[in-house]
Hints:
The chain is an alpha/beta fold. The protein has helices at residues 14-21, 69-72, 78-83, 85-101, 138-150, 177-185, 205-215, 234-245, 267-273, 281-299, 301-306; strands spanning 5-8, 26-29, 41-43, 59-62, 107-113, 158-163, 165-167, 191-193, 199-200, 202-204, 222-226, 232-233, 249-251.
Amino acid sequence: MTGKxxxxxxxxxxxxxxxxxxxxxLSLGRxxxxxxxxxxxxxxxxxxxxxxxxxxxxxxxxxxxxxxxHQINKGGTMGIDYNVLPLKKALDYLKKRIVKENKSIxxxxxxxxxxxxxxxxxKLPVNETQPIxxxxxxxxxxxxxxxxxxxxxxxxxxxxxxLCNIYGPTKLIRPDFVPTLIQNTLSPNQAEVWSTKPExxxxxxxxxxxxxxxxxxxxxxxxxxxxTGTMRSCGEVVKIIEKLSGKKAKxxxxxxxxxxxxxxxxxxxxxxxxxxxxxxxxEGLTETYNTMKEYAEECKWWEKKEx
Length: 307
């Protein structure tokens, strides 16, 4: 199923998790993938993809982008530079392969996010037809622009995944709730969270990886939600991590952005693939915490954050 699949951006957060689970997927990117992975990796320059001309592939998972919404929302063109332009360059190249060289692409998986749904008008659970409002900040606008861009390439069967709150072990400093909380509890400093009030659809990265690969074979193009279909509060997450770490996290109780309550209607995903999540929140968080605990001495995230 994945023998002719390439993955752009295998050195980030989700890419290595997909590659580890599916070692036959070929990695493409400017940065080397983690040394423990068995996948073949080819260094590429997104500005010139001619090095792929003789490569035999027909499915693509495109993970080049930037999810640091705190940085993107400071202004400037960072959102477009990272989340739109690389996607356009890849799609332009693939269109040329199809039109001029008759090399078909059977599926292209791109990624958006559940935050594009209108925070004030959604009805739970949220399906793919519900209203969006991508104009609240630069990050959301860049994700919306990427979705709209894919409509310019009808010759490529594209699925845009609106991803819910994904979490999993990482060595990276990410702006997401779960890795930030775990890195804080593993630091010598006081662990803090902005708020325990939001309720979200948390999906473990290993579950997401399986759903993504199943979608490579789906007879479908367009938007699709990827979440567990279960809503849990940030407070519940905090309690689980506190139990695992033996360390209390202080609730700062400050306002946060995004939907205060969100759960995805994933019935379309289930219909197309038969996918159901294998990990409970407790299981996923336990595995994530234990793995990141092994990384702590090497990464020392708290020192990097202070600098």
